[in-house]
Write a structure and sequence with these properties.
The complex is a heterodimer. By secondary structure, chain A is of the alpha+beta class. Chain A is 18% helix and 36% strand. Chain A starts with a strand and ends in a 7-residue tail after the last strand. Chain B is α/β, with parallel strands linked by helices. Classes of the chains: A alpha+beta, B alpha/beta. At the A-B interface, strand 5, strand 6 and helix 2 of A face strand 4, helix 3 and helix 6 of B. Bound molecules: flavin-adenine dinucleotide and iron/sulfur cluster.
């Protein structure tokens, strides 16, 4: 049996979780909401993260648009996703939710805009 | 003179939520004044995720969270003046603002909601020996440069201060391809949220040096390096512990301060601990009809709480201008003890308060296995176990109206930690 003391990062409450792994049985305590239990299980088996960054915008009211992965991606794919984000650029206007880079880093998850940018 | 029913100063999440809730409480004549050319406040530069889980049940980035409130304000047709700065509030709620189109204008407000947010503590490192070369930024300035203006701030960075903005920037710069050598923190604990230490430092193996500070900055034109030394319990630098780091950038993340020049000028009572105005349970300041919410009141780490608080301020302002507010009875002062540094609100009116009141507070250091106790004039009215409380994280306790039924005017409500 293994025990892990983790901090849930699903929201800024940052609950202290205790995760016990007993064979295929994973139990989580210390979570305030169900998302914490999911996080605890996920973190000890296959950790995931949301990646946020910015991408240059041509002809926009500001020079960059903020972006995020539309869902969680495996933690060990962060660098691959960043590579694709670094290659991307867009032209204004941009709307929240626009796909900026499809299937980023081969994760099957898109990188989408998180800000509306009007054309200049 | 131009008269407006409710004037809201600041169009960040607090100002927007206050406006929406004042509207939904029946008020129509609402004006938001924002000095920036965009609504949304500081959230526009907080491009990381982790906002809004409690309000929208999904995890949003700062700009997305702001966009939701901006569209709520737009749907209601609430008027906003952008690129407009409020320069003065005076007795009788005269609000003076200034912009390129209208020049200087004074309006008479039925109620005012202060929602000016906070700013970074000015370069907390002014005492550090050495020149002031280029490459030294406050973390928030660096965040704005990178996330909104798309600039690169440096290649090898040291961060002084482990507040949330510093932690978030450590990850951001690392993902941008810079090397973040370490985060040094003067105190023996971090001022940031534990989740940010986990996902911004631990994920990228960035060391967090507690009880350390920058003891020297090198470089004349541009930073070329810094020395980092250990500090003793009294925060003095321990000689001969300096370690040199070659770097081109130093970020200072030394905390936030409520932005209260206007409030102070208006003669409103400011709390020495929070740096924000003292308020009653309805978020009214010492000046009648002037309410406050969000980071101008005290620094929040969760925007969801900012929105909740601001909704109340908006509703209370609407009740005030419509004359629905009943002003009877006395108010009790909330006092703190045993590790609790401050509370917001600082006053509660047992007659006027709603059925329950959320009191938010912070502690002075980390405590484990304590009880949070609330006393009314010496009698315990509430007790709840606290496994762990940290100075970086805002705590809360609920006080019920029925618990204050027996209160006498000379009583105080004491909030403290006990064994
Ligand atoms: C770096 C950072 C990271 C954060 N991370 C998170 C997180 O992960 N999750 C989370 O939930 N919360 C987070 N927060 C907290 C949250 O963003 C803030 O608590 C919230 O934005 C505060 O809202 P506000 O409206 O009070 O202030 P602000 O957003 O600062 O808005 C105040 C507005 O008032 C305007 N203003 C000021 N003075 C005047 C004047 N005289 N005249 C006209 N306008 C004026 C300003 O221009 C500004 O737009 C973070 C905060 C920061 C700084
Ligand atoms: S368990 Fe729930 S409340 Fe606690 S940090 Fe995780 S998501 Fe937030």
């Amino acid at each position: 049996m293994e025990e892990y003391n983790l901090t849930c990062i699903r929201c800024p409450m940052g609950c202290s979780l205790k995760v016990t792994v007993d064979g295929s049985e994973v139990t989580v305590t210390g979570n305030t909401c169900p998302r914490g239990a999911d996080y605890g299980k996920q973190e000890v088996t296959a950790p995931v993260r949301t990646v946020t960054s910015t991408v240059p915008v041509a002809g926009g009211e500001i020079p960059v648009v903020s972006v995020k992965t539309a869902g969680d991606i495996p933690k060990d794919k962060i660098a691959d996703v960043m590579k694709d984000i670094k290659k991307a650029s867009v032209t204004a206007p941009v709307k929240i939710g626009d796909v900026i880079a499809g299937n980023a880093g081969g994760t099957g998850t898109d990188v989408i805009a998180t800000k509306d940018i009007k054309a200049r | 003179m131009n008269k407006r029913s409710i004037v809201i100063i600041g169009g960040g999440p607090a100002g927007l939520a206050a406006a929406v809730s004042a509207y939904d409480s029946g008020e129509r004549d609402i004006l938001i004044i924002e000095r920036d050319d965009h609504l949304g406040g500081i959230l526009n530069q907080c491009i990381h995720n982790g906002f809004g889980l409690h309000t929208f049940k999904e995890e949003l980035t700062g700009p997305e969270y702001a966009a939701r409130f901006i569209s709520q304000a737009e749907e209601r047709g609430i008027e906003c003046k952008l690129d407009t700065i409020v320069t003065d509030i005076s007795a009788g709620r005269y609000v003076t603002y200034m912009n390129g189109e209208e020049g200087i204008v004074t309006i008479e407000a039925g109620a005012v909601v202060l929602a000016m947010g906070c700013r970074e503590r000015p370069r907390g490192a002014l005492g550090i020996p050495g020149f002031r070369p280029a490459g030294v930024y406050t973390a928030g300035t660096a965040q704005r440069l990178v996330n909104i203006e798309g600039k690169c701030v440096g290649k090898r960075c040291v961060i002084l201060g482990s507040g949330d903005i510093g932690l978030i920037m450590a990850r951001r710069l690392t993902l941008e391809g810079a090397k973040v050598l370490c985060v040094a923190e003067l105190m023996p604990y971090s001022g940031g949220l534990q989740r940010n230490i986990t996902q911004c430092l631990d994920d990228f193996d960035i060391p967090l040096l507690l009880s350390h500070t920058v003891s020297r900055i090198y470089g004349k034109e541009r930073v070329t390096g810094v020395d980092i030394s250990e500090v003793a319990e009294d925060r003095s630098i321990i000689p001969d512990t300096a370690v040199h780091y070659d770097c081109d950038t130093l970020l200072l993340s030394c905390g936030l301060l409520p932005e209260n020049e206007l409030t102070r000028q208006a003669g409103i009572d400011i709390n020495r601990v929070t740096g924000g105005p003292d308020v009653r349970d309805d978020l009214e300041t010492s000046e009648e009809g002037v309410f406050a919410c969000g980071n101008v009141l005290h620094v929040h780490d969760l925007v969801d709480y900012v929105s909740q608080e601001a909704m109340r301020a908006g509703k209370m302002a609407a009740e005030y201008v419509s004359g629905r507010r009943k002003t009877d009875g006395f108010e009790l002062k909330l006092v703190t003890d045993g590790g609790v540094r401050y509370t917001v609100p600082q006053y509660v009116s047992p007659a006027q308060m709603e059925d329950s009141l959320t009191v938010r507070f912070r502690v002075d250091k980390e405590y484990r296995n304590k009880k949070l106790c609330v006393y009314l004039g010496g009698r315990q009215i509430r007790q709840q176990p606290k496994n762990i409380v940290k100075p970086g994280e805002m705590e809360q306790v609920i006080i019920l109206k029925k618990d204050l039924e027996t209160a006498k005017p000379e009583d105080t409500v004491k909030i403290c930690l006990e064994d």
